[in-house]
Amino acid sequence: MRTTFLVVAVLLIGCGSGEPCQPADGVYRYRLTPAGATTCPAIADQTVELDPQARPSTACHGTRHVSSDRCTVTFDQECQSGVVYQRLFIRGEITWSEDGAHGSGPVRLEFRSEEGVVCAGNYTASYDRI
Question: Which of 12, 27, 28, 127 could connect to 103 by a Cys-Cys bridge, CB 3.0–4.6 Å?
Fold first, then answer.
């Protein structure tokens, strides 16, 4: 049986340098690159739309902090999801370019079912506006 995971771009709008950053806004390619050992199968690149005016998903709860310069977003979220897994735990930090066109940073994912952890891993998440 092939397992497919869909990782949602969870509340990751913010941005990175001395000036206040423009918020991430538009359509992005979202890529998760393993950063060390992972027990998860490969996660395909995704196309996501980020809208700074959108309300946060009600499927997720936890913490999310945008830095005062709007360049860095730190998050620790739990999301209800999927058929193969029931919950996704995602935590990390994304730093955005000043123009909001690119963002990247370390992310920890953990997929859980009723039986426990399905898989987990550390990744580098990257967003590139397309």
Answer: 127
